[in-house]
Write a structure and sequence with these properties.
heterodimer; A: 113 residues; mainly beta; four-stranded antiparallel beta sheet; B: 117 residues; six-stranded mixed beta sheet; 51% strand; globular
Chain lengths: 113, 117
Amino acid sequence: DAGVTQSPTHLIKTRGQHVTLRCSPISGHKSVSWYQQVLGQGPQFIFQYYEKEERGRGNFPDRFSARQFPNYSSELNVNALLLGDSALYLCASSLYDWNTEAFFGQGTRLTVV
Amino acid sequence: AQKITQTQPGMFVQEKEAVTLDCTYDTSDPSYGLFWYKQPSSGEMIFLIYQGSYDQQNATEGRYSLNFQKARKSANLVISASQLGDSAMYFCAMRPGGGGSNYKLTFGKGTLLTVNP
């Protein structure tokens, strides 16, 4: 079975641009979470979606938004990119929202220049 | 608010020896879950071990064990018989407990483990 897949794997954008990152959870998993990992830090929670509803939001500006589709895949959108948005963006899926284990994808490395 | 503290930025261990990675946490939630993840240079976060706050016994998964001391709010990871492939970044994390709670993981800053041959 395929694990969590994220696309693209690497991305370079210019300040002020918009970016869309995509995540496909493990088949049957209904919960998707997004994390931002800046170099040298642990991941920080951005959003969680379960059954297409937002279940949690971290301390990120409104430039960050996300959605979950009927097939449980998810998109993370970031508007008006700043240099500080350069990071590894990780997606995690779990079967339900209270499961003990979340499976992570390999991430999308975003560089803003 | 939940907080995870990992005080060891880097650790070195000889191959085949055991190593302990420290993690302390702070939370006001009555129930919670504690995790350890391994992150190799490829970037993927690999789940290692889980401990629930009400679990009576310390969790073990193969060469990994979690030394859970609730009164001290510590959840140290012990890796026995280290292997060269264990060289990676290790993160301690926690989430609120209880059924139906949102799946927000709070991570520490990580410990970079290097296994020497």
